[in-house]
Amino acid sequence: MEILYFFILIFTVLILAYNRAPLLVAMAIMVGLTVGWTELRHLFYVPSWFRFANGIVAVTLIGFSIKPLRRLLISDRVFSLYRKALPRMSETEQEALDAGTVWWDAELFSGRPHWKRLLKTPRPQLNEKEQAFLDGPVEELCRMAEDWDICDKHRKLPASLWSHIREHRMLGMIIPEAYGGLGFSAQGNSAVIMKLSSRNLTTAISVMVPNSLGPAELLLHYGTEDQKNYYLPRLASGEEVPCFALTSPSAGSDAASMNDTGIVCRGTYNGKEVLGLKLNWNKRYITLAPVATVLGLAFKAQDPDGLLGKKVELGITCALIPTRTAGVTIGRRHMPVGAVFQNGPTQGKDVFIPMDWIIGGQDRLGQGWRMLMQSLAAGRAISLPALGTAGGKMCALMSGAYARIRRQFNIPIGNFEGIEEPLARIGGRTYRMDSARLLTLVALDQGERPAVLSAIVKYQLTEGSRQCINDAMDIHGGKGIITGPGNYLAHAYQATPIAITVEGANILTRSLIIFGQGAVRAHPWLLKEMQAAADPRPGARKAFDKVFFSHVGHIITNLVRALLLGLTGSFATRSPVRGPTARYYRQLSRMSAAFAFTSDLVLVILGGRFKFKEKLSGRLADALIHLYLGCAVLKRYEDDGRPEEDLPLVQWAMDDSLYIIQESLRGVLSNFPVPGIGRLVRWFIFPFGASYSQASDRTGKKVARLMQSENDSRDRLVSGVYISDEDDASGRVHRAFNLVLKSAKAESAIRNALNKHVTFANYKELVQKAVETGVITEEQATMVRLAQEASRAVIMVDDFSRGEIERFEETAFRPVVNAAQG
Ligand SMILES: Cc1cc2nc3c(=O)[nH]c(=O)nc-3n(C[C@H](O)[C@H](O)[C@H](O)COP(=O)(O)OP(=O)(O)OC[C@H]3O[C@@H](n4cnc5c(N)ncnc54)[C@H](O)[C@@H]3O)c2cc1C
Fold it and tell me: Cβ(288) to ligand 1 under 6 A?
């Protein structure tokens, strides 16, 4: 009996916490229960300790409800400690943290995502104009962009491709139609980059960079009317080729530490003496710089002579400089691996520019870093995620087909379980990457600039692409390794580190930015708490008290939710849908609570020291990333109309994400720097130990199977990539795949009748015999012959004569001809 009352008390408290009952409501309920139980003792046995315990909880809650009392006893003391512990931040760090908006990431930090809100967000869709553009000029550009020719014969983007890009205003996708651009949505922009990336990275990057963070994006948001009217039409038409120079030899990831300067001074411009800046810079790695006509430049402005006022260090500033300006050095090339887009260094020596070359004019002096950080969120969520997804899709398309075409031990290699594993990884990851790409684009098209989510998709989709291409290389064996016009993988494999490194190198993005920025921006209370603690005004303590106790409630609720959901296998929470995906919503709710609690634990216990715990931060980032990816997968499944045949992909992706979330959180707790705490919390969050495991072999088999046949699910998985119908490296694979599938029945009839496998070596003879004995029809025979010839064309790799290699070496590094200007 006593034990029953004990459980009633615990259950009451847990239910109040689980439902995040407001303090006053919880207090009223506990007071009511105390009074009620006291009265009920006249009717049946109610132990006195139980009534007393109810009373204690009620009194504690009353105490917490009396603000002056709780301030005196708790929050004012915490306020003082908090102030001392607040991490010091540089202005640039603060501006980076403040940039962009918060979207679905806030729901994940809340520990209780509002699924209906997610499901209500619009379906991703291209408009008619964008679709026509993809089917017309983009398809045509893909056809022109022969990978081997561009990378190995020309070692630059040929002039004919530049002309096509200009003619169709592809450099102006983000520029509104009013300025002569295409005015595409984020969806449209991403779809173009994805399709181009699936064909040739050099072409894709050359189009992508002017449509990402650079002069056009900065002008659109911050330019003066004169600057917009002058530059935007010229950028849209391709008359101007832009680049943006931020990185210096001394300042890579820590870009704000650049030594490039602009000294405020007087100088001569157009024959008149005007106020301006004398610039000196040394930048490197700048994409399109060797062919750029206008250079966007970030530098540190200084006013040592006090021409503008007393402040000497004015801060990072962005300007647009025509590359023909006296003192500008530009034109030398770096040679990135695997791609031959234009990239190079640039220097400037005492280059004088008038004030109105600053983007946004003189008023924007010193605001460059904020401008860059604000603009980064949008571009970062579009270009590289599109490129990464294209990588995944091409790996899925080509590896599935190749695994079906290539036979060893007389069966297609895709039938071996060892090959099924990497195939399934490619399929599941690609489905997940594309889902995240699409969901993030919907947010952008709704006007969001989601800073944390853009870092997530940049990191995860480029990393995912790397994982896919590694698996694809293994599946292809020697076919992937031998270069030549017949190799459709090698350049993408070589070029993979480019996307990993640019726009925030991935290690830094994972270990410092994603969780670090997410915790401050997307957490429901942390930023408000920090702002209240940093507020020097007298009312700050009061504001802090309110936020602090809300935060405490948030922590308690998430702990209780994580525990109860863990104990009940998540059946205590509801899914917004029925059917096979319902359980995933419930499991994500559970993991969201577990993540939110673990995050708070780390933040509260480590405080400012957390900034230096990158391994913990990286693991928390992994958990946050996979929470987001999981949501994106579930949303996509709904958007696609819940196609049953896509379930293996959904299941693979969801099982994998849940497993990664679990292992990341367990990793945080196992490595928690305060002894004992990690183990204790692990018991609460994972009461039955590790409950998620990686996708099952059965699911993997289904994924691998759907990638090796022609079906709607495979079409959806790879939709949006360029599918060549020509006699080129990838076109040959598509043709062979189609023929192999069509001839499979006939081949198996031959094998059964003649007791021999059909191979390149014997197919002519076997097919002839099979026709003569009536095993197959003449029509089937033709199909088998075509399939064998097409397969042979895929399996063969290139070889070169000594003379060809010598000629190739001679031309490999010949001086650069400026194609864009030529
Ligand atoms: C092909 C290419 C094109 C580019 N295009 C442009 C362009 O158009 N304009 C432009 O301005 N720049 C451009 N860049 C520069 C690019 O943005 C930088 O390369 C990038 O910022 C990284 O700088 P870094 O290469 O000097 O690496 P480093 O900063 O030296 O970093 C080396 C490694 O250390 C890691 N790291 C650094 N700090 C931390 C930290 N605090 N915690 C954990 N890990 C950390 C990084 O993640 C990375 O893995 C380009 C670079 C390349 C290679």
Answer: no
Give pLDDT tens digits for 464-498.
999 999 999 999 999 999 999 999 999 999 999 99
Give the three-state DSSP class for 821. Answer: coil
DSSP 225-247: HHHHHHHHHHHHHTSS-EEEE--
Instruction: Kindly state if the Cβ of 508 falls inside 6 Å of ligand 1.
Output: yes
Give 577-610 pLDDT, tens digit per residue.
999 999 999 999 999 999 999 999 999 888 878 8
Residue 401 φ/ψ, nearest 5 degrees: -65, -45
* Local structure of residue 446 (DSSP, 8 states): T
3-state secondary structure of 292: coil
- Taking 60 as the threshold, does the pLDDT of residue 816 lie above it? no
Question: Could you read off the pLDDT of 133-157 as tens digits, one per residue?
Answer: 999 999 999 999 999 999 988 889 9
List the structure tokens of 664.
């990341």
Cβ of 133 closer than 6 Å to ligand 1, yes or no, is no
CA 568 to chain centre: 33
Residue of the CA atom closest to atom 50 of ligand 1: 285
Judge whether 572 and 14 are in contact, CB under 8 Å. no
Does 120 score more than 60 pLDDT? yes
> Tell me, what's the pLDDT at 777?
96
Task: Report the nearest-CA residue for atom 27 of ligand 1.
Answer: 252
Between CA 789 and CA 709 the distance in angstroms is 19
Given this model, what pLDDT does residue 812 score? 60
- Three-state DSSP at 267 gives strand
Confidence class of residue 811 from pLDDT cuts 50, 70 and 90? low
The tokens describing 364, both together, are 């924007």
Of 171, 292, 178, the C-alpha closest to 229 is 178
Here the tokens at position 702 are 């289904």
Sign, CA dihedral 195-196-201-207, equals negative
Q: Is 503 a catalytic residue?
A: yes
pLDDT tens digit sequence for 25-83 = 999 999 999 999 999 988 899 999 999 999 999 999 998 889 899 999 999 999 988 88
Distance 723 CA to ligand 1 centre (A): 33
Q: How far away, in angstroms, is 609 Cα from ligand 1 center?
A: 25
Which residues are CB-neighbours of 797 under 8 A, at least 6 positions away?
478, 479, 482, 484, 486, 487
Quickly state the pLDDT bin for 814 (edges 50, 70, 90).
Answer: low
**Counting atoms of ligand 1 from 1, which one is nearest the CA of 298?**
11
Strands 294-302, 343-354: pairing kind: unpaired
Does 582 contact ligand 1 (Cβ within 6 A)? no
| Residue 694 near ligand 1, beta carbon < 6 Å | no
What SS3 class is residue 625? helix
Distance 95 CA to ligand 1 centre (A): 19
Instruction: Tell how far the Cα of 703 is from the centroid of ligand 1, in angstroms.
Output: 36
**365 contacts: CB under 8 Å, gap ≥ 6:** 301, 308, 314, 315, 317, 355, 358
Cβ(751)–Cβ(758) below 8 Å: yes
Ligand 1 pocket check: which of 246, 284, 502 to mutate, most ligand atoms within 8 Å of Cβ?
502
Tell me the sheet residues that pair with 732.
Answer: none
- At position 288, the amino acid (one-letter code) is L
Of the chain, the percentage scoring pLDDT greater than 70 comes to 99
- Reported confidence tier of residue 376, pLDDT bands at 50, 70, 90: confident
